[in-house]
Amino acid sequence: MIRKTILLCISALAAAALNLTACSSTQANTAAATRAEAEARAMQERIRLEQQKSVWDSALTDESRFAMNIKPTASEKRLGQQFARTVVRNLKTSKFFVHYLLSKLKENDMPVELAAIPMVESGLNPTVRANGGAHGPWQYKRATGKSVGLTTTENFDEIYDFVESTDASIEYLKKLYKDLGNWDLVVAAYNQGEYGVKRAVDAARARGAKRISLDSVRISRGARNYIERFHAFADILHHPSDYGVTLPEVKNRPAFKRVEVAGRISSMREAAELSGVELSTLKFLNNGYRSDRLSVSGDHGLYVPVEHASRLEHALRSYESGSASASNTSGSTEIKDTVTSTSREMM
Questions:
Q1: Which of 54, 120, 212, 342 is deepest in the core (most CB within 10 A)?
Q2: pLDDT in tens, 290-317
Q3: DSSP string spanning 59-92?
Q4: Of all helices (H) and strands (E), which one includes residue 283?
Q5: What is the pTM of this model?
Q6: pLDDT tens figures, 61-81
Q7: Can you give the pLDDT at residue 218?
Q8: Is CATH 3.60.40.10 what the domain over 55-243 is classified as, yes or no?
């Protein structure tokens, strides 16, 4: 009897211990879930506050991001004074692309000064066609564009598409830096051609240059002029007040969203009507399309201002369901007519 009582007590104690353990585990899980929720809310709040900033006050253009440490010469300062208002005007005109460009540079841990390259080349304008045969925002000639992976089809030209050409340019600049190890020489190579600059670097090493830089490498006069303008534009981005200008307000969030339209609508004009976006704005954002006709292959979507994207997506869903309903109704009518006709024949 005593043994039985002891066993019952032990069982009761074990059960109590298990209950306590389960209770502690539940409490721990609840506490962990609460902490995770709090951290998620805090992260969302940080993102919300960051997106309320201008890109010029955000982490995209933090002081540490100006890694080239450019110290402009007197002539570069004069160029900056000459072109400061042009830079501001171009940034304002092409503000749709600014956040994307700066985000890609940060994502790839590349100096923010490199944003000055497409500003020097085209003012960030994807529609630019130069007399020398260069095209688009990064000003590629056909052969060079093809070499960096930009393709052209019957209805789409990636050289003129800001997103495609920027993505390709980022990879190209990374490759040049891996080969040259100096960002100023990378910029020179972008202008003069990579093989010409690589030969100049080899020649500098053959002469016994201990440090490979603009000071020790002999590049073309045209490339020197290009570097001067690049330095001037980069310094305007870094210190606009030194040039008496204020950079235009650009929200620290994506300015456009890609909407899949392949097989759903066939023209940009139709997309403009459904989204409420000006047709000229859609064409500017989607300059890769060679006509109003949209691609049916699905390779390229349609970039729409972010505040209009949900409206277009909703319209497309309604459009599709309406077409499906009409098709089903049409099908039912055809069946009904067939049955009626058959009944008449049998009579």
A1: 120
A2: 999 997 677 789 999 999 999 999 999 9
A3: GGG-GGG-TT-----HHHHHHHHHHHHHHHHHHH
A4: helix 279-285
A5: 0.80
A6: 999 999 999 999 999 999 999
A7: 94
A8: no
CA dist., res. 56 & res. 48, Å (int): 16
Single out the residue of 87, 107, 337, 54 nearest to residue 234, CA to CA.
87
Measured CA distances, 292 to 44, 84, 160 (Å): 39, 35, 15
Distance CA 301, CA 180 (A): 36
| Distance set, CA 167 to CA 106, 160, 255 (Å) | 13, 12, 17
* pLDDT reported for residue 336: 39
Residues in a beta bridge with 257: 304
Query: If you average pLDDT over residues 115-128, what whole number do you get?
Result: 97
Residue 61 near residue 250, CB atoms below 8 Å: no
CB neighbourhood size of 240 (10 A): 17
Annotated domain spans of the chain: 55-243, 256-334
Q: What is the pLDDT of residues 149-158, one digit of tens each?
A: 999 998 999 9
d(CA 191, CA 77): 21
